[in-house]
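Hello,

Our lab assistant flagged a job as stuck in the queue for most of the afternoon. It eventually completed. Since we weren't sure the result was trustworthy after the delay, we are filing this so someone can double-check. Below is the sequence as submitted and the structure that was eventually returned. Let us know if re-running is recommended.
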Amino acid sequence: MAIRQKIVVFTGAGISKESGIPTFRDANGMWKKYDAKKLASAAGFEENPQAVLDFYNARRKNLLEVQPNHAHRMLAELEKHHDVTIITQNVDDLHERAGSSRVIHLHGELTKVTSSLNRLNPDCIKEYPLDVPIKMGDKAADGSQLRPFIVWFGEYLGPEAEQAIILIENADIFVVIGTSLVVYPAAGLVNYAHHEVPKFLIDPGDMQGRLPKGFHHIQKTAVEGIDVLMEEINGL
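-- returned structure --
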């Protein structure tokens, strides 16, 4: 019987794109249509909170309409044989809905709300039904306006980033799926993987000049590449 390995998987927008969730930085990404500074920053929220809430309420509603795909489900299946932790830049809950039990969200979660005075106040972070819009006048436990539990531009990632570094440093196998590796500080996390462990990157692009040292590139989409990854892991 194969030895249980500590597998850490770092996922980005590419894995959720195949479930119907728009990306941000692709040619047709959201930030080509919307102004990120106005809709994903504390300053933008202060200037026009209603516009920000409308934007995130639409994204939350979209999340109700999509399902985990084959890549999400296979990562959950991997838990039967290995100790798997997902570290994701995505704010959706598709990994959890697919069955993954250990998921760390670096950029927050659409399924939660928090305080607009202190995003990381644990007393104010709570689950919020996706079919209930966040409205002006809805208050957090500290009396401030509720806001989405999302890391906006210029905000501190939070303790999840430190936890992610430790997990990656101690991984037996490290996998990257569906991220362009251009968004920092999250993209810098790949540098913490030990140089001797097997490392895989699933991405349909050519990654010329961007492929981190020591990574085996599976040049496919997440849904196509996940089965190739499983074969590679089974062959180790």
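-- support follow-up --
The delay was a queue issue, not a problem with the job. The result is valid. The beta strands are 6-11, 83-88, 103-105, 108-115, 126-127, 146-150, 173-177, 199-202, 215-218. The chain has a mean pLDDT of 92.
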